[in-house]
Amino acid sequence: MITRILIVALYIAACLRLRAKPWLYFQLNAEHFNKAKGIFSKLDIDQLIPARWRLDQFRDSGSEQPTHYPVFIKPEWGQNSAGIVRADNLEQLQEHRKGRDLSAMPFLVQESATENCEFEIYVIRDEENEHQFSLMSITETVNHSDDEFPINGIYNNNTSYRDLNDLISDETRQKIWSHIKQINNFRVARFGMRANSIEEVATGKFHIIEINLFLPMPLYLETAGLTSTDKLRFLLKNAHLLAKVTRSIPKYHKSKSVFFRKLYVHRTTSQSSRTESVDRQKGVAL
Questions:
Q1: Looking at the DSSP assignment, which residues form a beta bridge with residue 34?
Q2: Which domain holds residue 64?
Q3: pLDDT tens digits for 37-60?
Q4: For position 253, what pLDDT does the model report?
Q5: 105-118 pLDDT tens trace
Q6: Are 62 and 125 part of one and the same domain?
Q7: Which of the listed residues 92, 112, 132 is the one where a domain comes to its end?
Q8: Would you call 71 exposed, middle or buried from its count of C-beta atoms within 10 A (0-12, 13-18, 19+)?
């Protein structure tokens, strides 16, 4: 929580120093915000990913079945692995479907990636050159359980993050960037990938698990052994570069009500899910 507060506070301070407008933060990737749904739709973003890096997924209406297992069932919006569950067979998938309202919060079913390693790549686009990055932070996600298909995240006690930044050359970063920018030149994003090594990511042999566009957190800040000095140095750099790319948003940019629209949808679907849960409990009691 303290880290998140620092990210926001330092960003606002950097914006004021650079004469950027901090309230435009939610416009950084607004062109990818689905106004009708009120979310950064994972299905929409999925269509931006070239087929060779894309995992098959579909909106779970309850009628379509996966071709193979395991699969991951995840909310169409959300981040940090919140709400994700795994189904190893049809019975588990059907059990999960019974436990939720298919008409309320939309869920997706995504195939599992077969690669051995997981990486998180956080990128801020350059202020002046949209075809280049100003910051790329690369971490490896490590799971300490025996689970072959774990659900990693900052709230999973078996998950830790390993800093790879000092191990990766500028040449390798540029190779990775050459792939990432084929997806889209997001102003800020975090890419979750599965690959057998970071070298294979550089050669384009990977699958995208997820792309976070709404408040993406650089997972470098969660790496083990990070000193307070290193964390503060990164936070200051991150805030400065975010403020610069915020300043680059065109004056003619048509704003979208991203924050309040997303907040409304979140509250509406959460209330609907709670009501459905209460109704099911009453039905069981009767």
A1: 39
A2: 56-112
A3: 888 889 999 999 999 999 999 999
A4: 58
A5: 789 999 999 999 99
A6: no
A7: 112
A8: buried
CB-based contact 57:66 (threshold 8 Å): no
Cα gap 17→249, rounded to integer Å: 17
177-187 average pLDDT score: 94
184: CB partners within 8 A, 6+ apart: 32, 48
The answer on 231 and 129 residing in a single domain is yes
Query: Quick check: 168 pLDDT over 90?
Result: yes
Query: How many CA atoms lie within 13 Å of 94's alpha carbon, on the beta-carbon side?
Result: 5
Task: Please state the domain count of the chain.
Answer: 2
Token couple for 24: 């435009």
User: Which segments of 47-187 are extended strands (E)?
Assistant: 57-59, 71-75, 85-87, 107-111, 117-125, 133-143, 159-163
Burial call 105-144: b when 16+ CB within 10 Å, e when fewer: bbbbbbbbbebebbbbbbbbbbbeeeeebbbbbbbbbebe
Compute CA 158 distance to the chain's CA centroid, rounded to the nearest angstrom: 19
Q: Does 229 lie in the same domain as 145?
A: yes
